[in-house]
Amino acid sequence: MDNDIVNCSWLSFDMLVKKREVCTSIFKKMKRYRLWPSLRILTILSFLFFLVLISSCERERERESKSKTNSPPVITSVNTFPDKPNKESELNLVIRSQDPDGNPVTYRYQWMRNGEEIVGENKSILKSGIFRKGDLIQVKVTPSNGKVDGKPFLSDPVKILNSPPMIEEVRIEPKMAFSRDNLRVYVKSFDADGDFVYYTYQWEKNGVVLNEERTEILERTRFKKGDSIRVRVIPDDRETPGSPKKSESVIISNSSPIIISSPPTSTEGTIYLYKVKASDSDNDPIVFNLKSAPKGMEMDKDTGFIRWEIRPEDRGSHLIAIEASDNEGAKSVQQYTLTIEFK
């Protein structure tokens, strides 16, 4: 009897169900030996305890079974692109992984800079402004299939390269140019790394490159009226050349003739003489004209020679205006006051 009771206490729930006849026999023996009243409650409590224990064991075995049958995902490669980033790049990822059970795989990210974690950077994209030239960037990716995590994968380091300088604006000054002007280049540029920017210049005249002209100034002897001038500028920070940029074309305008002589302020007797001299940088023919003069003053329009016979009634101040013009209508004026006195 004792052995039967012990055996019954260690039966699993399934075994108790399958061997009801054994339990029935035990209960009959307990009654025969008058143990039933005293052990009934203890036996029922023992039965309930083992029922709970068996249920807990079954759940644990089920969890272990599921854990053993689900394999963690595996990352095979993590690549960062672009493969040659600079300070202004946005870093993205290409991840290759596999899950033995065919489950969908998700990822957790931790970006790293020079071997240290970047706080708060745990998305699939690392935006510009987080790194600078010379930094080494990596990312640690942890795969998961929703049931179990895989082994974290650390990407190869990617070096942040030099950013090429950029030209924001290039133009020729003065905007309205004449054949008497030297031309100069105005350049506005930007370098993301803060490097000093150097420039290479390529001047063009009427679409033809002036190979010998490599400075920021184009001398006035290199062009004439009507020429179309343009300049191409290439930025360089001594590490990487930037993209070239061309200016708008400047057409060399017609120049006005300039009167270069000074009028006499006194007279020789009663005759006033003045030989007007003018210069035209385009070498256009010059025509002279008296726009304002006292009565009797004459001027040769081709030579610019002025002659005036002064009379007593010409005493006083006289406004004289001389105009010099070219064959395209460009003109300049010389104006002065001549005072006549008689002693």
Provide an overview of this structure.
The chain is of the alpha+beta class. It folds into four domains: 2-69, no CATH class; 74-159, Immunoglobulin-like; 166-251, Immunoglobulin-like; 258-340, Immunoglobulin-like (Sandwich), CATH 2.60.40. It has four helices and 23 strands. It has helices spanning 2-9, 13-18, 20-32, 36-69; strands spanning 74-81, 92-98, 106-113, 116-117, 136-144, 153-154, 158-159, 166-173, 183-190, 198-205, 208-209, 217-218, 228-236, 245-246, 250-251, 258-259, 271-275, 278-279, 287-292, 298-299, 305-309, 316-325, 331-340. The strands form seven sheets. Strands 3, 4, 5, 6 and 7 form a five-stranded antiparallel β-sheet that branches. Strands 10, 11, 13, 14 and 15 form a five-stranded antiparallel β-sheet that branches. β20 (298-299) and β21 (305-309) form a beta hairpin. The chain starts with a helix and ends with a strand. The relative contact order is 0.08. Residues 1-19 have low confidence and may be disordered.
Give a brief description.
Helix content is 18%, strand content 35%.
Secondary structure layout plus pairing:
Elements: H1 2-9, H2 13-18, H3 20-32, H4 36-69, E1 74-81, E2 92-98, E3 106-113, E4 116-117, E5 136-144, E6 153-154, E7 158-159, E8 166-173, E9 183-190, E10 198-205, E11 208-209, E12 217-218, E13 228-236, E14 245-246, E15 250-251, E16 258-259, E17 271-275, E18 278-279, E19 287-292, E20 298-299, E21 305-309, E22 316-325, E23 331-340
Antiparallel strand pairs: 1-2, 3-4, 3-5, 5-6, 5-7, 8-9, 9-12, 10-11, 10-13, 13-14, 13-15, 16-18, 17-21, 19-22, 20-21, 22-23
